[in-house]
Amino acid sequence: MSKKTSDHDILQHLAASRGHKKMDHNSHRQDTGGIILHTPPTGPNESVEQMLAREASTETHRPSLHAETGLNDEDNKIIEIPCDLVDDSPYQNPFRDYDPIALDELAGGMESAGQNEPIQVRRKGNRYELLAGHRRIRAARLKGWTAINAIIFECDDAEALKKVVTHNEGRKNDSPFAQGHLYQFALDRGLGNQAKIATLFATNTTHVSRCLSMLRLPRPIVSMLEKQSDLFGIKTAEIINQLLADHPTEEALIIQAVERIKKGAPSTSVKGWFEQMYKQKEQKTGRSNNRTKVVTSANGRQLFSAKRDGRVITVRVSDSEVDADAAMMKVIESLKMFSTENYGEK
What we know:
Layout: H1 7-17, E1 30-31, E2 36-37, H2 48-58, H3 65-69, E3 72-82, E4 86-87, H4 100-113, E5 119-124, E6 127-132, H5 134-142, E7 147-154, H6 157-166, H7 176-188, H8 194-200, H9 205-213, H10 219-227, H11 234-246, H12 251-262, H13 270-285, E8 293-296, E9 302-309, E10 312-317, H14 324-343
Parallel strand pairs: 4-6, 5-7
Antiparallel strand pairs: 1-2, 3-7, 5-6, 8-9, 9-10
Helix pairs in contact: 4-5, 7-9, 8-9, 12-13
């Protein structure tokens, strides 16, 4: 073949050398030595640049972490960082529970399947501060990992605080007492009132209020919860608060009832055990006639209850439709009248 041999001649030569027929210029099906060329496609021509532009306009991109969190990041890059340079966030709930069994299961999953989700950190000098992934870093260390995948964010303290306290990793498994501390922490840091806190954590104000009430239990009981935050839940806490309201001078006995839970007694036994012990105590001291007095309406609906515990008289408004402030003023007027009639005082 000459140097000026055409492409057409080259293809014919290749076909002949492989034992095929020469190309038929009148056929739509061409034999090119094993490559089948069908009739060229018809339709509007499109340049490579136009094709790339079209594909780019229709491609679905993963939402950036910047859009999801409102924080600045380093191009959403996932990088490896040393595990021993990662510190817990100072904004982490101090009473957050880390179930060792759950951590071991997570560590096993990460070891077999790899780390599916990077932790999130921010730079603090030459180290890193966690924003999200407190369980994952613990699981990695449990398995002896020296490095872990991470995304580094640039954010100030206020942004870091909000990100840490609202991150939902394992949040639903936190005990009500731990949640109460988290809500109080958010309140103290000015993230809003109880209604805003409820919205921030995707819950309701009633739940926030009930969890916060656990922090106002007597100090000895709070100390028990600080050592074992899941010792009992919200319902038991409400029973304890009710017993304290009904028997303000019996705090020590109520604490004993709670201490029994630490020894294996069910949390539902607090009220029954207390009432039994209190009844025995009344019988020994001759105060068994100090039973609760009830005031009802004409149709028998309970409106008020009154109870004397030693020299403490407790009046409770039982019906939610009763104006408690007006009832209290009536009680004060009655006491003033009683003092005037019996002691000559106004």
